[in-house]
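Researcher: I'm preparing a figure for a lab meeting and need a structural model of a single chain. I don't have an experimental structure, so a prediction will have to do for now. The sequence is pasted below. Please return the structure as tokens so I can convert it later.
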Amino acid sequence: KYNTNSDISWVWENNVTYATTFAQDHNVELLAGYSSQRYTRESNTASGNNFEDNLIPWISGGPPQFRSANSGATQWSLLGEYARLNYNYKGKYLLNAAMRRDGSSRFGANNRWGSFPSLSLGWIVTEENFANELGALSYLKLRAGYGVTGNFNIGNYTQYPNVGSGNYPLNQTIQIGRPITSLGNSLLTWETTKGINVGIDMAFFNGRISLNADYYNKTTDGLLYDLEVPASSGFNTIKSNVGKFKLWGYELAVSTINLKGNLTWTTDINVSINRNKVLQLGANNTPIGGIKEQLDTWRTEVGKPIGQFWGYVFDGIYMTQQEYETQPHGTTSMAGTVRWKDLNKDGVITADDRTFIGDPNPRFIFGINNSFSYKQFDLGIVASGAVGGDIFDGKAEWLELIDGLFNTYSDVQYRWRSEQDPGAGIIPRTAPASTTGQHRKDNSRYVYKNNYLTVKNITLGYTYSRPVQGISSIRAFLSIQQAFVLSKYGNPEISVNGLNGLKEGKDAAAYPIPRVFSVGLNVNF
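Model: Understood. Here is the structure written out token by token.
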């Protein structure tokens, strides 16, 4: 197989800046500019199979019927115009205003341009004459800002119906055709986020304690997302500007110098509290996700946080035939199969009995960094964690299947076998109804609380200054990454879809984060 790729990326920017001071205390800086950017990729692939032996070095030496070639190209471009004003009075009253207008090739011809203004204000209070009366407060800055940002990261050519190659029968022969392979949306436009931010920066005791606090409130409109469409259309999704979301929260950072002298100790702590709410989804507020009963774990719905877990509420096992006959059940249920709660109280278990069963969004996340030094020794400990939020054990959908295709959890040995041997009342019987019809559906038993603390890194070092002529210092160190994790769930930081905001927090058996031991030597000349 032979592959070649040719990538060309260029950016061209032109800026003009003007700065002046008038009336001694008024400082102004103006900037205006124009930018253009383009990225192009061309690719070629050729392959061959069924060679007579390994001595043939070229694809052309293989049988013609087993040779193939393919090529392709993709391109996108971005144009921008921008202007910015910076102003301050005596270095204590601050103003920044900016406007940017961008056009992207990834949108339809009538929707390519977006305008993104911003404005921020600041006041350094400790520059005022009365600052001497603030006692232990050595620095104080108040700030506020408003801005609009845009997102165009949706891939190329999603605004057009894409065409591929395919075969079709005509007059009893196979003809080569050009079918549509994806739906286009010429109405696509920029995803925009409008937000305000209010913050305060403080320092006490000549910088021994520093504090930064922020509150933000922003609204994302026209989220760019692959919206599911009916299968009768011949396609699965279409890229759309699907809705409006509100996001708000608080961020706090504290830095302290705990000890000074031969032994120094500094600490940095940050805490983030983030919330969100869905305000609108398309024209009809149709929820996103949660359509299928398995492997469709998330649902985004108006009035709720983004990307919550969706499924049945686990209610044990039908332990006896009498329980099965006298309680609500599904059409494929039987004694020994899993039991869901009949939430709509209609006497039967159907897809309408599903509900929100968890939220992957934590109540708050935090990080802690401690640094120590004593003479030539230094020690750093970095930790992070989260409180609140849930994680979905997607492995269980396979490891409790009991159909002989996969390994299983050890709890499977305590499955329901009969009324006389009912097991622990959690794992159902091995009948097909339990494996393919009921137990494998998304449900609340797979949802776990996800509080955790991870010590990300511990590094111990020793520095020897000027050991020999020509070398200024040598530092030897030992470090441990992912030193340990405190969690009731084995792998709390995993997410099969990464940071996809609509589909986070599911463990689908990805490889765990490894613990790495490192020994190193830094030599400075």
